[in-house]
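Deliverable D4.2, example record:
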Amino acid sequence: MLTPPKNTETTAVLLTLFRNDLHIAVPSVETDLIDEGVMNSLVFANLIVRLEERFGIIVPLDSIEIDQLRSISSMASLIDSLQFSA
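Output generated by the structure prediction step:
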């Protein structure tokens, strides 16, 4: 199975999205947003909509793992994978 290249642009866009759209300062791309209490159900729903709009993807909620949305780094990998497989 092919693996999408690591995309630092995706990471940068995610950091900007969190800062500007969600008004959340993320200290590190590896910060666990769920364990840190940053990601609640309202933020999660808003995030999914913004990811789909910004990246032109559909986040398959029925087949992704919550670990794929725990950090900016894991989200970037998920997004890159979804874009790569489209």
